[in-house]
What does this fold into?
Amino acid sequence: MSGQITMTEGLNQALDEAMAADDGVFCLGEDVSAKQGGGVFKITAGLTEKYGENRVRATPISETAIMGAAVGAAIAGQRPVAEIMLMNFVGVCMDQIVNHAAKLRFMSGGQTNVPLVIRTTTGVGVGFGGQHSDMLEAWFAHVAGIKVVTPSNAADAKGLLRASIDCNDPVLFIENILCYGLQSDDPGKDYRVPLGKAAIAREGTDVSLITYGRTVLDALGIAEELDKEGISVEVVDLRTIAPYDEETVLASVRKTGRAVTLHEAVKPFGTGAEISANIHEKLFNELRAPVQRVGGAFSAVPFVAALEQAWIPTKDEIVGAIKAAMDWKQ
Amino acid sequence: MSDTKLDRDVLKDIYTRTMKVAQTDEKFRSLLTQGKVAVMYYPVRGQELVSGAMMAALDADDYVVCTYRGQGEQTAKGVPADLWWAECIGKATGTCKGKGGPMHITHPDSGVMVTTGVVGSGIPIANGLAMASQNNGDGRVTVTSFGDGAANIGAFHEAMNMAQLYKLPVVFLCQNNRYGEHTAYADHTDSPTIAERAAGYGMKGVRVDGNNVEEMWAAAKEAVDRARAGEGPTLIEAMCYRMMGHFFGADFSYMPEEHLAEMQAEDPLPKLRQVMLDHQFTEEELDAIVAEIDAEIDAAVEKALEAPFPDADELRKDVFEEEIAA
Ligand SMILES: Cc1ncc(C[n+]2csc(CCOP(=O)(O)OP(=O)(O)O)c2C)c(N)n1
It folds into this structure.
């Protein structure tokens, strides 16, 4: 394939191709249709013109009604892609996601299922402040029955979204605002990245840096720099956060003997804690250092750039964690 | 205009469904009293006709979303007694393999898609089922049933607005049984009726006597016909009375005795029987219908009591499509 696509284009193409392939796929959410300009971030641009307003439903500002409708349509056999404009607003429809989307397959003994994709966007570093920036993936990773996915590049965004739409279970699909402009080689039509499979974004031999989403970029940059100092960092991009690719993670840590988890969400009770605990349980004797964790500061995301930049896991913190693992004395 | 005439066939159908609800309710309470089963049960005594008439207005493949107090909708819509009873006591042979229980009955083959224990949460889900029908033009109607208390949940308001906006083929059936747990209607709502709220969304709203078969049937039939014709949703407020506590065995000393006595005079079951007799059904015919229902229930209960409980490995199944690791 020739040419490049941005993450925005990749997501739009995934929706377009999925809608063309299956009449049951439809989008709903605030501002998503052509009348409102194709979505706040333009992810649904051009789709109304092709598929009409029933399949690109602009909704009232009613997150519970949006999510409830998506759940109902999904159990009736359609494949809704519901957009929650910003991740913090999932709090408004938590009941529909946690009590219904995630549980109906189980509670019905498998008679119904919820092939629903919840697309949402978030990210620190845009100056949106405390109520528009949170990474809340751990909330959902803690609930049995919903998958949690986040891409770190444009090609993965396209392939993961397509696979999420194919998936017969609910998927929370998290897009980072700061990643929308990232470019990848165009992976072509009908491209899919399987759910539950991590990628080794960079091979290394000394320490495994396990991350996902935008912080994969930080990880790759830091790995490049540390290489010059003689530290070989393997970067694992989870891509699917829940259920995560335990096999790939453990294989990487078995190889390097050291691990650092990194995410934008606050550190306490985060997904890094789960992954770290699991590595300790399974590989304690093979570890050359305790698993280190890096995450966002334990406060609301601040508005002013000076503080916001200090809130995100900083380069110093990430490098510090890697070096702590490297320098650990038994 | 829809044809809301109550002919003998319709009456017989409503009577059969209503008595299924009534006999199931009575059997459940008797099993609980005898200690033969020990689960939470939310009685529907006093509300039987509302479900019986509403479900009679639906086609077999129409959808229903109901609540923990949904026995009426479930049995009247046609969930087979065998499967229903087994699920209520948690058996592997139940509709949901014992993983749902009485508060989460699902049986898509009968159109019962969701039973929810979170007050009001089924209302927006019903919109989604209706949206799917609208998207793929299958002509199905969705009915969602809920209590008067649920009409104060945010989900109710969001869903009403959305349903009317898109003219979804959905019927909102509020069973105003005068109580939300221990709180009487007047202590949780100051608007005189729930039905009048429909106007706030541009929707059609009607309040009917849910103990009166003519009124209840006419409202149900008209709402379903409107929905099927693409004319949009209707909010029906069916006035009825919860003749017992919130769940079986619960204290209901907070319900004034005089009011209870007054409402007992409105009991829908003897009233319905009288209407049947007025329409030249004989006592024997009516008794035969009930006897047949009783026999079916007794056999189902017996079978359910003997059925096995689910295996522990069910914990790993139906979490996701693929079985999860041990
Ligand atoms: C969101 C939510 N809040 C509280 C409860 C606890 N609760 C269970 S039933 C009930 C009363 C509901 O009353 P109503 O909607 O009138 O229905 P009814 O029980 O009368 O059928 C309450 C408060 C709940 N299940 N869900």
